[in-house]
Write a structure and sequence with these properties.
117 residues; mainly beta; seven-stranded mixed beta sheet; four-stranded antiparallel beta sheet; 0% helix
């Protein structure tokens, strides 16, 4: 019943921008902290950005700080990741994660981001 659906990934040149979206279905979206992770095949999953349920607090990995912005629109049940000044090392599958303490933990299917010339 619960679904997180990511969109907005694709191929972009270095220095370009992408905006990822993650729409939640079947959950009380405003109750969940939302986190963007990314993973390169064969490597560990990395936390990219997080935002609290009310959207009042955010955190970022040092590698994306100043370039990425996480935001949410609870009225639309959607969290966003605005990615600017993209670098080849940003290439990864990006996953949306919804968490409500230890009781609920949901993942999206992932969306591929490729930064290449």
């Amino acid at each position: 019943q619960v679904q997180l659906v990511e969109s907005g990934g694709g191929l972009v040149q270095p220095g370009g921008s992408l905006r990822l979206s993650c729409a939640g279905f079947g959950l009380t979206f405003s109750s969940y902290d939302m986190i963007w992770y990314r993973q390169v095949h064969g490597q560990e999953r990395e936390l990219v950005a997080g935002i609290t349920s009310a959207g009042n607090t955010t955190n970022y990995a040092d590698s994306v700080k100043g370039r990425f912005t996480i935001s949410r629109d609870n009225a639309k049940n959607t969290v966003y990741l605005q990615m600017n000044s993209l670098k080849p090392e940003d290439t990864a599958v990006y996953y949306c994660n919804a968490r409500w303490f230890k009781w609920h933990n949901y993942w999206g299917q992932g969306t591929q981001v490729i930064v290449s010339s």
